[in-house]
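Good day; I would like, with your permission, to put a structural problem before you. A protein sequence and the structure tokens that stand for its backbone fold form the material at issue. I would ask you to consider whether the tokens describe a fold that such a sequence might reasonably adopt. I set the record out below, with my sincere thanks for your time.
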Amino acid sequence: MSSRRMTTIAGSLVTASFSAVMILTVPAVARGPEPGSDKGGKAVDQAPAGVELTTLLSEKISVDNGSRKTTITATVKNGGTKESGAIRLLVVGFDGLKVTGVPGCSQIAEGDLPEGSNSGFSCPIDNLAAGASKSYAADATFDLGSTGKICLPVQASDGSKTFWQQGPVPFGTTNPSPNAPATPLLLGTDNTPVAPEGGGELPRTGAPGQDVLPLGAAGAALLTAGAAGLWWSRRRAEPRGH
């Protein structure tokens, strides 16, 4: 029987069996509270008594219009009265937002990524004291010609439960600035793609009413799932047999 563990996340369905990846030896996190927002977040599975896990994302990021590079601060915090024990934070990118690196975290193999995502990293945390938080500076690229979303699930260390999930939540702007050195994007804002060279009408993402479909592909269950959540699906089907 496969030793792969099933990972509970509120969204579509995935079996997470992360292959062994060497964890970087550089400092993993910046400690202490960071400014941010929990917009798009919700509790999923019940955390241990006295533990209250949530996440925060940068409320505003800036994308270099030349390199498309940006940095996103992802923070996990324990607002409870007891230690969290071993947990892990996942940082997952969707659509035009691709996570390229998170110091101290392991890259998720392509075949183990959630359906609809393009990148992801798993960040192990041995323990988070009551009232403490840890912040990760996630490097990413953002294709300003499309929409982009990020997702932060907080799980038990073995992936058996997801205590909290923020997203998939979009970054974007309704006022693109293709000629500026950088474009500021706001959390929780659907991106309006920059106009093609030579002007003209902005590219459309679909017929009216279809703008929410990218979110639906990866996380529409956030609108309908109860506290138990759903399962994410892997890109590749699990081989049959034992």
User: Anything to note?
Assistant: The CA atoms of residues 9 and 48 lie 17 Å apart. The helical segments are 213-219, 221-224.
